[in-house]
Structures are given as structure tokens and as C-alpha cells.
Design brief:
The chain is α+β, with helices and mostly antiparallel strands. It contains eleven helices and 16 strands.
Length: 352
């Protein structure tokens, strides 16, 4: 088997609100150590978005885009509701879940049939195939083929000196105003009037990601390609797995997308593409570091040289020398989405 990889780094200006809420009243802040001109600097509270949240939105984009193509019928009941990762157990003690699972409904019956079996049957659903799953009973699991780093802020000296953090943030109290709450209204309705906090943060953020496309449609537990996923379906899943990144590089990910958008400007987006590597390629250096693009180019160039394998770097918004040397090539594109179009072409995944 040879490895097929698509890796990505992105740097974007984000003025965001609640993008990373994992609890109702809090924007996520973490300590980050930076390497600066003067050595190392600790920023104890930097606004950050966990890789789990980015992965969640990649999953949603992936399923949404597959709903428009032929294999939409293979999307399972849970994934079609964007509830991925944890499969509903097929043997349960809970009365309500047991009743639901034994319902006559055809969709439920099929879900039960598929998720109750082995990995090669479960991954006929593209959601479990690409993003993995965990089933408690009977026990079964599959690792995700998609990995995301945290979205972390880069170090901007002037912002740090002015505010003491790389990502100024603010928690604002909002009040819901409901006209005419009747006297007899219940406690629940009256409480809707109460103030609630909302968090805002901004900064220049970056993340990295890698997707192991060679294992699409492949069962690890049976060490073979699944008979339940055709060659055409594998190709389509690989193509859509790359396209599912496109909303994320424009900031479209987060808890309040139902009614709001973060303000975002993509600055640098770089894809690293390996169509046929003998081993797994390393994941790219994170945009949190100033020289990440140069570091990545050097690392992948030496990797391509060592393993005699082809790697192409496709850059938007970065200063790099274009050119080709043996198996290694650097291409620059002028438009953001051309990064993805070029990557699909390099991997032979474009549609006609
Ligand atoms: Zn599914």
C-alpha cells in the first residue's frame, strides 16, 4: 500500500464570537509558549479553538457535501443528523433507546443492521469511514482519518505589548427582552429575560491538519479494502474530504453559526500533497511559528528526497520561490480556492 496524503496549514484574521464555546458562558483560553526574537514567551491566557471543534465542522461539511452526490443513500441515520463519532449501541438497557431501536421504521432497522456488524460494513457510511467511530456495545472502534491541531493565535508583538495577550477578549452581558410576559407565565419563560454572557475574542489564528486518504474504504480490523465501498465511492470520498476544508479556511466553523458569522480574512493557506508515499508523511509545522512555511518546505523537500516520493506544496498568500526539483515542487496560486483545485488535480481526484 502507498500512502495518499493531503495536509493543510492556514493562517487567518478572526474576529470571533463564541466560536469555541464548550461551556455556555466561556470562550476557551489556554497557555501558549511562543518563540520570539528575544527567546521564549509565555502567554498564559490566549483565546484558542480546539481541534475537536474544527474536526466537528469538517465532519459536518463532509456529510453536507456528500448529500448532493450519488452515495447519499449510504449516509447512516446518525451522520445524516450530524451526530457522528459515537454509535448508538445496538444492545442497550435503556428502555427508551431499546424501544427506538426495535421500531419498525425502515431507516432505524437499516441503521441497527449496519452498526451492529463489523468495521467493513459500518464504514459503508462515509461518516464512520472518514471520521471514525466508537461503539461501546458490542465494543468496536475506528480511528479518525482526519486530524486537526488546535487553532492557536500567532504572536504579534505590538498586540501583546498593548494588551498583555495575543488575543484581546471581552465578555459582554446581553439581556433578552421579551415584550409582555404574562403574569401567569411559568418560571422558565420569566427566566428567559435574564442577562446572559457572550464572549468575543480576536487575533491572527492558525491551524494545521492532515487527512490519510489511503485508508478511505479500508477496514483496519480485517486488514483489507471493504467490499461495501466501491472504487468510485472511495474516489468521491477522498475528493469531498478535501473540499470539506473550504468553509473552515474562511472561518465558517463554530457554535453560533445557526445565526451569526465570524468576521474573517484568510491570509495564508498552504496544501502539502503526497499522491503515493511509501510511509506516512509528517504533519506540517503549525502557523503559530513565524517561519512555518519555510520550515515545511525544507522538511517535505528532504522527506521527498529520502523516500524518493513526490510531494507538491501549493501556496496562497505566502512568499515562496516557485519551482521543481526532482520529486519536489512548489506552486503558488493567486486565488484561495485554487489551492484545493490544484491539490485535487495532483491527486487525480478532479471531476470532469
Ligand atoms: Zn454514519
Amino acid at each position: 500500500m502507498s500512502y495518499v496524503h493531503f495536509a493543510l496549514t492556514a493562517k487567518l484574521i478572526m474576529n470571533m464570537h463564541d466560536l469555541n464555546n464548550e461551556r455556555a458562558e466561556e470562550i476557551r483560553r489556554v497557555p501558549v509558549v511562543y518563540r520570539t526574537r528575544d527567546g521564549f514567551k509565555l502567554v498564559s491566557e490566549a483565546v484558542a479553538v480546539s481541534g475537536v471543534i474544527l474536526k466537528r465542522y469538517h465532519f459536518v461539511n463532509f456529510i453536507q457535501q456528500l448529500m448532493n452526490v450519488q452515495q447519499r443513500n449510504k449516509i447512516c441515520l446518525a451522520c445524516s443528523r450530524f451526530e457522528g463519532i459515537r454509535l448508538i449501541p445496538t444492545r442497550v438497557d435503556d428502555k427508551d433507546v431499546a424501544a427506538w431501536l426495535s421500531a419498525k421504521d425502515e431507516e432505524v432497522r437499516r441503521y441497527r443492521e449496519v452498526t451492529g456488524r463489523n468495521e467493513s460494513e459500518i464504514i459503508q457510511c462515509p461518516g464512520e469511514d472518514l471520521h471514525g467511530f466508537l461503539r461501546e456495545r458490542p465494543p468496536a472502534r475506528r480511528e479518525s482519518l482526519v486530524h486537526f491541531s488546535w487553532m492557536l493565535p500567532t504572536y504579534v508583538e505590538s498586540i501583546y505589548e498593548e494588551t498583555g495577550t495575543t488575543t484581546p477578549f471581552l465578555v459582554v452581558q446581553h439581556t433578552r427582552v421579551i415584550k409582555n410576559i404574562p403574569e401567569e407565565a411559568g418560571r422558565e419563560l420569566r427566566e428567559l429575560q435574564m442577562p446572559y454572557p457572550r464572549a468575543y475574542g480576536n487575533g491572527i489564528f492558525g491551524f494545521s491538519s492532515i487527512v490519510h486518504l489511503e485508508h478511505v474504504g479500508y477496514s483496519f480490523t480485517e486488514a483489507k479494502r471493504s467490499n461495501n465501498v466501491s472504487d468510485d465511492e472511495v474516489k468521491e470520498r477522498r475528493r469531498v474530504a478535501i473540499l470539506a476544508y473550504t468553509p473552515i479556511v474562511t472561518g465558517l466553523a463554530g457554535a453560533t453559526l445557526a445565526r451569526a458569522l465570524p468576521s474573517c480574512k484568510p491570509l495564508e493557506v498552504v496544501a502539502y500533497v503526497a499522491p503515493s508515499s511509501p510511509i506516512s508523511i509528517p504533519s506540517p509545522s503549525h502557523p503559530i511559528y513565524d517561519d512555518y512555511v519555510e520550515q515545511n518546505v525544507k522538511m517535505y523537500k528532504s522527506f521527498a528526497n529520502l523516500f524518493k516520493t513526490k510531494i507538491t506544496v501549493i501556496g496562497y498568500g505566502v512568499k515562496l520561490e516557485e519551482g521543481r526539483e526532482k520529486n519536489f515542487e512548489v506552486k503558488l496560486v493567486k486565488e484561495l480556492y485554487d489551492v484545493f483545485a490544484e491539490a485535487l488535480r495532483e491527486l487525480g481526484l478532479e471531476t470532469t
